[in-house]
Amino acid sequence: MQGPCCCLLLFLCLLLLPLHATGLEDPREPLPLPFSTSDPTAHLLRSRPSAPVRPYSLSLSPEDYRYAPKPRHLRPGRLRRLLGPAFDPFWMSSEEPLGRNLSAKEDLETMSRELAEGSGRHRRKLWKEVEGMELPPELPADMARPLRRWLVERALCRLTSAWVDLGPIFWPRWVRHTACGTSPPACSWPPGMACRPAQLAHLKLLAWHCWAALPPGPPHCAWRQIPYPVVVACKCSCR
After folding, report:
1. What is the Cα–Cα distance from 48 to 153, expressed in whole angstroms?
2. For residue 155, what is the enclosing H or E element?
């Protein structure tokens, strides 16, 4: 194939290539900061907090952070003012929560409006799907409703949680990590599907952020709000 058709085909192929394959840079991608406390958190400290981030992907190893706030930087009153209305006692705590090892047994839906709304939304969706199923014609009418209810309860995915210490460079340093329950291991009938995250929410935390100063001066550091994704709903899924 020669002539204009060949040129058009080549042009279309170039359009389909990813930017890194063509040697070009995406002008929409923000430039990385010149310096941060840690490479694992650099993507959270960019100017686009809406960029997708996997839940609980921050490194919690002290070796990953060069600088830590001093006691004068950790005054709770000032940090609370910096975080403002984003402080949510259900999700975060500046001190180690009492009885934190029992959190997996809590009924989280009764403690958080956000989790209750997410659970209710998925329950309604399940009922709609189950009511559209064709049941065997020989099934007695008085058994149809209980069977549909059993299928819905079987497919519901509940959340568990545990308090995690993020360390001194985050405030509040204690954050509730939620996860999809694994009991029972299968949520479908016949078995084969499992509960997986279906909806995320982004908390706001403070991170101790440092950037390079003109040599030979020390780096400048300050608290900065960052998005912190958490799981708020799960669904029964194959993947």
Report:
1. 39
2. helix 141-155
- What's the CA gap between 212 and 225, in Å, rounded? 19
* Nearest of 57, 37, 33 to residue 206 by alpha carbon: 37
pLDDT tens-digit readout, 9-35: 333 333 333 333 333 233 333 323 333
Q: What is the pLDDT of residue 188?
A: 84
Q: Comparing 213 with 181, which gets the higher pLDDT?
A: 181
Q: Report which residue type is found at 200.
A: L
How many Å apart are CA 72 and CA 69, to the nearest integer?
8
Give the confidence band of 205 by pLDDT, cuts at 50, 70, 90. Answer: very high
d(CA 39, CA 220): 17
* CA dist 70 → 67, 75, 169, 208, 225 (Å): 9, 10, 10, 10, 18
Q: What is the rounded CA–CA span in Å between residue 229 and residue 225? A: 13
Tens digit of each residue's pLDDT (9 = 90 or more) over 114-145: 888 888 888 899 999 888 888 888 889 889 99
Q: Cβ contacts of residue 36 below 8 Å, gap of 6+? A: 42, 45, 209, 210, 211
Q: Measured at the alpha carbon of residue 125, what is the angle toward residues 120 and 130, in degrees to the nearest 5?
A: 125
Reported pTM: 0.66
Torsion of CA 226, 232, 238, 239, to 10 degrees: 0
CA 76 distance to own-chain centroid: 26
